[in-house]
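tool_call: predict_structure(chain=1)
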Amino acid sequence: MRIARRMLLGGLAATSLVVALPAITLAADGAPAVDTGDTAWMLVATALVMVMLPGLALFYGGLVRRKNVLSTIMHSFFGLALVSVVWVLIGFTLAFGPDVNGLGLIGGLDFAGFMNVGIGPSAVYAPTIPFVLFAAFQLMFAAITPALISGAFAERKRFGAFVLFTILWSIFVYSPVAHWVWSADGWLYRMGALDFAGGTVVHAASGISALIVALLIGRRAVNGQGMEPHDIPMTVLGAGLLWFGWFGFNAGSAVGANGVAANALLVTNTAAAAATITWVLASYLHHRKVSVVGAACGAVAGLVAITPASGYVTAGGALVIGLAVGGICYGATLLRSRLRIDDALDVFAVHGVGGVFGALATGVFATTAINASIQGGLIDGNPSQLVTQAVAIGAVIAYAVVATFVIVKVVNGILGLRVKAEDEELGLDLSVHGEVAYQA
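tool_result:
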């Protein structure tokens, strides 16, 4: 019995040594080596971000009228398929390919069709994980960003117009902005702009674009019908899935299983929780009711605001950001309503305003105590970081406004933006998809 136990232990030890030998060899030659722990975490993080797409579909789907729920869900689901193909063909190389002409504006075609995107590590972007995994992780960011915009034109946009808009916006807005901010060659990256997981690239860009689309497509035809959410439990479930997936969104942006990722996960939860409380409190003071929808929207606002800061701030900083943004975004929804802008699902008020606030707050609360690779923000005695953040926000917003305006005009000229009045009255589920979400 004792001999058998020793043989078993010896065999296990030998097996472990054999498994470790390839990693030791790779590390010994000085080249970047794939770390299995980092790779495992990034596989999970990539899947978590993908879960945000069905989460967004449910979040948005519950907020619209029941005759448009399938149409709204389709925008997120089909958008994932569209951008997945675009990203492989051209999007990734425009965002992360070697810079064209050294201006920091757009990547070249070195990675078109995922050429040269292999299973080995990349010294620049993925030193401890396969480069193809980094590209897949970034794909999920590229997919959810135009899906966010769909909330602005819910219940009235042609499906063909949505498809063409998503393709063009992904190529001509998302990829260039990602290159500016996240590429090692990008001009805003070289300037020192901080955006850990997408406050400017994802939320500011999509939020301001949503506002432009809402203004250009016009208000929905109501005809005396109520505009209340048709399924609040669906919206809360979607918000919960977004909260869950956001751990991969923010903590995965550390591109490794490390202390920065752990801190990003903590501050993500902290800001979401704080903003939930603030939004519900603000709504109660305004309406004297404890809003369930408000709790869901508050959580998303907190998640948006902490996104650019998540790899740079402490839990205390995240608490302040969350408490502030809940009230700020709630106020933005009231202003939008007063101005009678039909941004159907308040994309600008939550993602645009929340993303801008979070990016500015990063310039205040970023600290070298969390991330030694930066110079810190205002609290670390570096007020110039706040100026850099403002420049980055201004540049992204200006470009997104102009580019989105042009794209919408092109799409409208080719296909037309809105469905016919009778189709809008019937509901897009039946008129466009020929299906209904619920049987009578």
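agent: The chain has 15 helices and no strands. Proceeding to next step.
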